[in-house]
Design brief:
By secondary structure, the chain is of the alpha+beta class. Helix content is 36%, strand content 26%. The protein is globular.
C-alpha cells in the first residue's frame, strides 16, 4: 500500500485536498474552526472544531459532494506572505490559528497563507496550482481527536481522506483498503474466536480464547523444539523486578518512559518488566562458569509489559503486555561469529518453513555523535559492529545499515517483514551486547585460569508471539496452515439418520490420533454447514454421504477450493497426519 508521505507529488496533492475538504466543511458548517491538516502515510486528515455537532460516516458523502462542486469550479490556489502582526489581525477571530501564530518565534517572521475562492488557511505549503487537480479523492473515516493530542484538552473532529492523480489510482487504492479490512487481524481474531479485549480488564491487555491459545501453544512448542535441538535451556522468571535491577542494567535511565510506573511494597520498589535480559543475567550469575560451559543458551517465552499510548494500541500487534520468544546466549569472544551465524540461520529456517518470503535484514548501528544514548566505548562498538558485518557478509545476506537505531548497549540485526496489511515492522531480532555482562559483573574462568567477561547475544525469532500471530493471521487471511489451525477437520454427515454413525466413528478415530476435529451433527442442510465451515476457516471439510458409508471412503474439500476429492479413509488419514507433521512442507 502506497505511503503518501514518501511521494512528493502525492504529498502536495493530499495536503491541498485537506484544504479543499476544509473549505467544503466551512460551506456546510459555517461555524467550523480548524486546527491542523497534515499529510500522513495514509493520505491526509484535518482536525475541526464543530461545537456540539458530532460527525458520523453518514455525513461524509455530503462533504464529498461539496468538495466535487468546488473542484469543478476550478479556483486557483494563491499564496500570500504576511508578517506575524498581519497574521494575528487576519485570523483574530480564530483561536486555533492565533495559538499557532503566537507560538512562532519572531515578530517579523514571514508567514504564508493560501487562498482558494472564499477560503483562506494558514499554511507553509506548497500546494497544487488549482483545485481542479483535486478530483480523485475519497473521505475515509471520521473520529475524535484531542486538541494538541492532549487528553486534558477538548475533543475535535478528525476527518481522514486520500487523493490521487487519476481515478484508476484511487480505485486501486480503495480496493487495497477493502482487502486490508478482510485481512485485519482484529476482525479475524473476533470472527474466528482467537482473542478478545475488555476495557474492564484494560486497554492493550488482550485475552486469548481457546482457539487462540491452541495457535499460541503450537507456536510455543514449535520454536522451543527447535531451540532444544540447538542446546537451549528454558527457564521461567517473574514478570516484575526490583527497580534496582533496572538501574543496574541501565534500562531505568534509558527506557523508563516506556515502563509502567514503579510500585512500592514493604519498602521495596518494583516495576513490571519491559524486557527479560536482567533476569537472565541473574540466572547466569547464580553459578560459577568455565569456558568449557559456554555457550550457555537461556530461552524463555516471557511475559513483558510496556506502556504504549492508547492511540498506538492495535489488537495483538501493539499491546501493553506481550510474550517474547526470548533468549540470551552467553558466549566467549571467540564464539561470537559462530553463535550469531546460528541465530541468523535459525531465523532463515523458520521463515522458510512458515513460508515467510517478504522480509529484509537491517543492521542497526550506533550514532557515534550521540554521547548520551549509547554506552561510551568506541572500541567496543567498532569491534561489535564489524563482527556482525563479517557474519552477514560470510553468509551472503543482503542488508542495509541503519545509523542510530542500535540498542543503547550494542548493535543489532533486525528482520523487517512487509505484512499484507500496513507498513513493514520488526519481527525477529538479534542484538550483540558487551555492556550488560560488565554491568552485572558476569564472569567465566578461561583456559588460563583468569576470569573473563562473557558476551551476550539477545535474540527473538518470533519477536513476540502476539505480534507474530497478528502478522500470520493477516498473511493467511485467517486460513492458517493445517498444523496451526485451531480446528483442522470438520466432519459433516449429509443426513444424520443414515450417515451419522460412520461420521461419528471417523470423528473419534481422528480425535484419538491427535487431530483437532469437529463433528457437525446439526440438522441443517449440507450447503449451510459447508458455508459455515469455510467462514470458520477450517482447512478440511469431510462430506460423509451414502457412497462414503458404503465404501469406507472420505470425500473432502479444502477450504478455499471448490474441488471435492474422494480417498480411502486410511489414505486420507495418512495424508493429513503427514501434512501436520511436516508443517505442510
Amino acid at each position: 500500500m502506497i505511503n503518501v508521505k514518501e511521494n512528493e507529488k502525492l504529498s502536495i496533492m493530499n495536503h491541498s485536498c485537506a484544504h479543499l475538504m476544509a473549505q467544503a466543511v466551512k460551506h456546510l458548517y459555517p461555524e467550523a474552526l480548524f486546527w491542523v491538516g497534515p499529510v500522513v502515510e495514509e493520505g491526509f486528515y484535518y482536525d475541526i472544531d464543530l461545537g456540539d455537532i458530532t460527525l458520523t460516516m453518514e455525513d461524509l458523502p455530503a462533504i464529498e459532494k461539496e468538495m466535487k462542486k468546488l473542484a469543478k469550479d476550478g479556483k486557483r490556489i494563491v499564496r500570500q506572505e504576511i508578517t506575524k502582526d498581519e497574521a494575528l489581525e487576519k485570523f483574530k477571530d480564530d483561536p486555533y490559528k492565533i495559538d499557532l501564530i503566537s507560538r512562532m518565534d519572531e515578530d517579523n517572521t514571514i508567514i504564508s497563507c493560501y487562498t482558494q475562492g472564499d477560503f483562506t488557511d494558514l499554511c507553509r505549503g506548497p500546494h497544487v496550482e488549482t483545485v481542479k487537480e483535486l478530483k480523485n479523492f475519497k473521505l475515509l473515516k471520521v473520529s475524535g481527536a484531542y486538541w494538541k493530542s492532549d487528553a486534558n484538552n477538548h475533543m475535535l473532529q478528525r476527518i481522514y481522506g486520500i487523493c490521487f492523480s487519476s481515478p484508476e489510482e484511487l480505485e486501486a487504492h480503495l480496493q487495497e483498503l477493502e482487502e486490508a479490512k478482510l485481512r485485519d487481524h482484529r476482525k479475524l481474531g473476533k470472527d474466528l474466536g482467537i482473542f478478545m479485549t475488555s476495557d474492564l480488564v484494560g486497554k492493550g491487555l488482550p485475552m486469548y480464547l481457546p482457539n487462540g491459545y491452541i495457535i499460541w501453544e503450537e507456536l510455543e512448542n514449535y520454536i522451543k523444539g527447535k531451540e532444544k535441538k540447538l542446546g537451549y535451556q528454558h527457564v521461567l522468571t517473574p514478570p516484575l523486578g526490583n527497580v534496582e535491577l533496572y538501574k543496574t542494567s541501565g534500562h531505568w535511565a534509558h527506557y523508563q518512559e516506556n515502563m509502567f510506573p514503579k510500585m512500592e511494597v514493604e519498602g521495596e520498589e518494583f516495576v513490571l518488566r519491559p524486557m527479560n535480559c536482567p533476569h537472565h543475567m541473574m540466572i547466569y550469575a547464580n553459578g560459577i562458569h568455565s569456558y568449557r560451559d559456554l555457550p550457555i543458551r537461556i530461552g524463555e517465552i516471557a511475559r513483558d509489559c510496556r506502556f504504549e499510548a492508547s492511540g498506538a494500541l492495535k489488537g495483538i500487534e501493539r499491546v501493553r503486555t506481550f510474550c517474547q520468544n526470548d533468549a540470551h546466549l552467553f558466549v566467549t569472544h571467540e564464539q561470537i561469529e559462530s553463535e550469531f551465524a546460528k541465530v541468523v540461520n535459525l531465523i532463515l529456517e523458520v521463515y522458510k518453513e512458515l513460508n515467510i518470503k517478504d522480509y529484509a535484514f537491517e543492521l542497526s548501528l550506533r550514532d557515534p555523535e550521540d554521547k548520551v544514548k549509547y554506552y561510551p566505548d568506541d572500541e567496543m562498538w567498532n569491534n561489535a559492529e564489524n563482527r556482525l558485518r563479517k557474519v552477514l557478509d560470510d553468509i551472503g545476506i543482503d542488508y542495509v545499515e541503519k545509523i542510530g537505531e542500535a540498542a543503547f548497549y550494542g548493535p543489532k540485526l533486525d528482520v523487517q517483514v512487509k505484512p499484507a496489511v500496513g507498513n513493514a515492522y520488526t519481527l525477529s531480532t538479534c542484538q550483540l551486547d558487551f555492556c550488560l555482562p560488565m554491568k552485572f559483573d558476569l564472569t567465566y574462568v578461561d583456559s588460563d585460569g583468569t576470569k573473563k567477561t562473557p558476551v551476550v547475544l539477545h535474540r527473538a525469532v518470533f519477536g513476540s508471539l502476539d505480534r507474530f500471530i497478528a502478522y500470520y493471521l493477516e498473511e493467511t487471511k485467517g486460513l492458517l496452515p493445517l498444523w496451526l489451525s485451531p480446528v483442522q477437520v470438520n466432519v459433516i454427515p449429509v443426513n444424520n439418520e443414515y450417515h451419522l454413525e460412520y461420521a461419528s466413528e471417523l470423528f473419534k478415530e481422528l480425535k484419538d490420533l491427535g487431530v483437532r476435529v469437529e463433528l457437525d451433527d446439526r440438522n441443517e442442510k449440507l450447503g449451510y454447514k459447508m458455508r459455515e465451515s469455510v467462514m470458520k476457516k477450517i482447512p478440511y471439510a469431510l462430506i460423509i454421504g451414502q457412497k462414503e458409508v458404503e465404501a469406507s471412503t472420505i470425500s473432502y474439500r479444502k477450504c478455499g477450493t471448490e474441488e471435492t476429492i474422494t480417498l480411502a479413509k486410511e489414505e486420507f488419514i495418512n495424508m493429513i497426519l503427514n501434512e501436520i507433521k511436516n508443517k505442510g512442507n
